[in-house]
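sanity check this record:
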Amino acid sequence: MSSRRYALVSPCRDEEDHLPTTLASVAAQSEPPAAWVVVDDGSTDASPKILADFVAEHDYVRVITRQGRDDRVLGSAVVEAFEEGVAALDLDDYDYVVKLDVDLDLPPTYFARLMDLMEEDPRLASVSGVACVEEDGSLVPERGSAEMSVGMSKFYRVSAYRDIGGFVPMLMWDGIDCHTARAHGWRVRSVDEPDLRFRHLRPMGSSDRGLLRGKRRHGRGQYLMGTHPAFLLASTLVRTRDDPPVIGAAHMLAGYVAAAAQGADRFDDEEVRRQLRRFQLESLVIGKRRAVRRWEERTESRWPGREQSAAVEHAARPEGDPAHAAGRSARQVGRPGRRVVPGALFRSR
């Protein structure tokens, strides 16, 4: 069993309105973090003072201050701030590393439950709860996908985080990491349970000058990630019901088309993009849940922990069990898992 040590890393910029709530909800966790690095990315409001007061009372927290930027640069700046926080940690000291936004209100057993899920499934790379907004006293989930961990709460197994090479400093980094992990043989989930629903204090996609701008940015990010045009069109139709109706989906489509017309640079791992497009096309035909299962089945042999897991299972068998010798022979001839799935996997079944 793991030691259940987790470290939080939180980029922060001008969050005085939401920061106290997040700080209080982390302090109230039934299993507190072993470390928490908050990277203040040039705040000009009261955030530094709020953080200083909290650090004075909680010895597991430290603050790194970066020089301020003139503009809010989403995607790359968030990842760069996060990576600076990670660099201040020795990940060998932790089982899990978490990218946590500071505009959240978490239930008190949130991280304990995520660690339970990780221990139940050693192939799980990243897991999260479900982001919600409060409406009439009830928590209403924001739009999301069960096969993705949400960007504002990325709870990662350290070994998986290292295996995917960390986060990519570009728009849609919080989708690219999930697809890369799955291409490497891992699983990723967001889990909707009462104890894993958390309050998102800022509507998704509204942090950079409004919802419509956020919709266009999302469409652009989909292009950069490598999303198939057919899947994007289907997603646009589904999202016509989201607020603001129709126009929001139109802005998302416009962002994708504009990025394509500009020839914007896409995520540079062509193999992951190929796997992503196959998954998306399969989703349109057989449904996303079955398509996720098929993707995970295709890449199971590439999971880095496969041999270790097999060795544990083998050791638990009696010496006289025929599977004992068979397992030993398989391990002797097996090759270490590669990080890139060969193109043969993309031939039609």
About this structure: The first helix runs from residue 19 to 27. The chain has 13 helices and eleven strands. Residues 6-200 form a domain with the Spore Coat Polysaccharide Biosynthesis Protein SpsA; Chain A fold (CATH 3.90.550.10). Confidence is low (pLDDT under 50) at residues 324-349.
